[in-house]
Amino acid sequence: MTVNLPLVSSFGEILLSFAPMFSQPSFVNFTTLVAGWVFCFGRRTVTGLITAAGAIGDKHFSCYHRFFSRAVWSLDSLGHIILNLALQFIPKDAVILFAVDDTLARKTGKHIWGAAMHHDPLRSTRHKHFFSFGHSWVVLSVVVEFSFAKGKRFALPILFRLYRKRKKKLPARRANGSNVEKRRAASTVRGRNSPRRCSKSRPSGSPGAIFEWWGIPSTAGSR
User: Fold this and answer.
1) Are 194 and 142 in contact (CB under 8 A)?
2) Are 107 and 115 in contact (CB under 8 A)?
3) What is the pLDDT of residues 142-167, one digit of tens each?
4) Residue 42 backbone zone (phi > 0: left; psi -120 to 50: alpha; other: beta)
5) Nearest by Cα to 221 from 207, 201, 205
6) CA distances from 95 to 81, 134, 196, 220 (A)
7) CB distance 14 to 31 below 8 Å
8) Helices 24-39 & 62-69, crossing angle to 10 degrees?
9) Burial level of 47, CB count in 10 A (0-12/13-18/19+)?
């Protein structure tokens, strides 16, 4: 596969790393959407992305919408590829630092799946707490320091989950079963990097159980 878009060659080579997880038509849509994300100004809607990428008229716009709703590909697999790319910039004898945090995406409406009332850190103060309705996304990132920005660290998102509040207490067996998918994705990250030392960093306010979700080794340090 090749990337036939107005992108610098080095960036095109990075995109080729994701080719194995897509079919050929889906990979073409993927590269078009990524290019649109880079060139787009303002809100990055699907229509805005294909317009910015200059893809209007190449195919029906619904093909790009179906890329998210019907195409067969895995976000977890995409995250694992990003992790493997990031590990190239981390010395083999260095500790791999993971950062985890939750982000509240406020929503409005009566029929939004998975939305609930969550603590809103941006509106809260030390003495008064505010809650907002929306989605709470918990994101796991790998922390990387690049040679072109000495002294600065970048957190590259690799995996995420939608945090959902339980309305009532579930039996222990059923509660444990609800985390099977999360642990499966986590075990893949841990298994691929088991020989290397890991460290986890968690900003205050993040759900405490997130480390169990991702399966980060219990021997990892905490910062």
Assistant:
1) no
2) yes
3) 999 888 888 899 999 998 888 887 76
4) left
5) 201
6) 19, 35, 7, 10
7) no
8) 110
9) middle
SS3 state of residue 207? coil
Question: φ, ψ for residue 48 (rounded to 5)?
Answer: -65, -35
Q: How far apart are alpha carbons 164 and 116 in whole angstroms?
A: 8
What's the CA gap between 142 and 150, in Å, rounded? 17
Tell me the pLDDT band of 119, cut-offs 50, 70 and 90.
confident
Angle subtended by helix axes 24-39 and 9-16, to nearest 10: 140
d(CA 191, CA 8): 34
Hunting for tokens 């986590």 — which residue is that?
186
Contacts for 92 with CB less than 8 Å, ≥ 6 apart: 196
Q: Which residue has the higher pLDDT, 143 or 212?
A: 143
Contact predicate 186/158, CB 8 Å: no
